[in-house]
Amino acid sequence: MTKAVIVDAVRLASGKGKPGGALSGTHPVEMLAQVLRALVERNDLDPAMVDDVIGGCVQQVGEQALNISRTALLSAGFPDSVPATTIDRQCGSSQQAAHFAAQGVMAGAYDIVIACGVESMSRIPMGTSPIGQDTAGPGIAARYPEGLIHQGISAELIAAKWNLDRATLDAYSAESHRRAAAAAESGFFDAEIVPVTVTTGAGETVEHTTDETVRAATTADGLATLRSAFRTDAFAQRFPEAQWHITPGNSSPFTDGASAVLIMSEDMANKLGLTPRARFHSFAVTGDDPMFMLTAPIPATHKVLAKAGLGIDDIDAYEVNEAFAPVPLMWAHEFGADPAKLNPRGGAIALGHALGSSGTRLLTTLVNHLEATGGRYGLQTMCEGAGMANATIIERI
């Protein structure tokens, strides 16, 4: 079978996903165009050789509607002949894009393909698509008569089930910021971040190169002062087991971002004189209880490890998306995973969770971390809306 390799991976530095954030004045098409353009320029690649661009985006409405991946590649100056598609597997959209891209190479359908993702949560706020709409229909109403719940409540239920107290969640979150700040200070993100020129709210033109969501001064004591984000009297009555530990401080922030990964066959990389950095080893995608919603990384990880013929201790780094602190903590508990290997450069609580961009953002950071540390295997997984998860294992070359 043809080997699918990663030749390069890039991302934008995160922007706060609210008015006044560093990227809030940048159209999402231009955000994605920046990383697409950088990817081909960094590798001296003729974009006409790209067989397809597969992008992830969750809120495909407004400025992100009508196949933003195609719009962005045209904005980036790619030839008209390059096609694109935009997919939605919720938070795992661009991780799924990477799966489809790599699987297409392995099947012989592609020689060169780009997997990417984008989300502007400042310009297209979370929940924009379904406002005022019934997105479930009568079948779901019959199957779940009390209704599916908000993912924040799912995080509360997970914290209760795995006995994760507030101090544990806040300590983990503070450590995410500490690790991300240390990585930035050491220059570990320099190779993956594409500088982008932005206009501030004050009308100044500046170069954005630093993750805006990282707060180096964050402490567990400071996080302990924040109030519950999801407790209401109605929810407290319905879910008496919840302890209401989830706050803005131990959740991922709304974020703007874009990322992209250049994937090709190993033969094509050699033909072009490009050096593969990692290869795709194994893939998995699965579903789990949509009421708990965020637990699917556990069965997805079991599935991908079984396919790979590896154990958790064979993996040198784990990227488990920090949608909420209970997610990586329950995952680590279930697998007995080494906490030092878990999100070693910080996770989404610090670096942000720009929905459709997060899958290829995690992959970008994972590739760079394996290279810097000499690790061989990296595992990436993330929870996704309606109780799904992707899992990916890559091997550094």
Describe the structure.
With 397 residues, the protein is an alpha+beta fold. The chain has 13 helices and 12 strands. The strands form 2 sheets. Strands 1, 2, 3, 4, 5, 8, 9, 10, 11 and 12 form a 10-stranded mixed sheet that branches. Strands 6-7 form a two-stranded antiparallel ribbon. Belongs to the thiolase-like superfamily. Thiolase family. Its EC number is 2.3.1.-. Residues 275-396 form the Thiolase C-terminal domain.
List keywords for this structure.
397 residues, alpha+beta, ten-stranded mixed beta sheet, acyltransferase, Thiolase-like, acyltransferase activity
Topology:
Blueprint lengths: L3 E8 L3 E2 L11 H15 L9 E5 L11 H8 L8 E4 L5 H14 L5 E9 L16 H7 L7 H11 L4 H20 L10 E4 L5 E4 L11 H4 L9 H6 L16 E11 H7 L5 E10 L9 H12 L8 E4 L5 H10 L12 H4 L6 H16 L3 E8 L3 E9 L1
Parallel strand pairs: 3-4, 3-5, 10-11
Antiparallel strand pairs: 1-8, 1-9, 2-8, 5-8, 6-7, 9-12, 11-12
Protein name: Thiolase family protein
EC number: 2.3.1.-
Enzyme class: transferase
**Proportion in helices:** 25-40%
Instruction: Tell me the overall shape.
Output: globular
Instruction: Give the H and E element order.
Output: EEHEHEHEHHHEEHHEHEHEHHHEE
**Approximately what portion of the residues adopt beta-strand conformation?**
15-25%
Give average pLDDT, whole number. 96
Give the helix tally.
Answer: 13
Largest sheet: 10 strands, mixed
Q: Give me the Rg, rounded.
A: 20 Å
Q: Briefly note the structural class of the backbone.
A: alpha+beta
Beta-strand segment tally: 12
N- to C-terminal distance: 17 Å
Runs with pLDDT <50, length 5+? none
Family: Belongs to the thiolase-like superfamily. Thiolase family.
EC number: 2.3.1.-
Keywords: Acyltransferase, Transferase
GO molecular function: acyltransferase activity
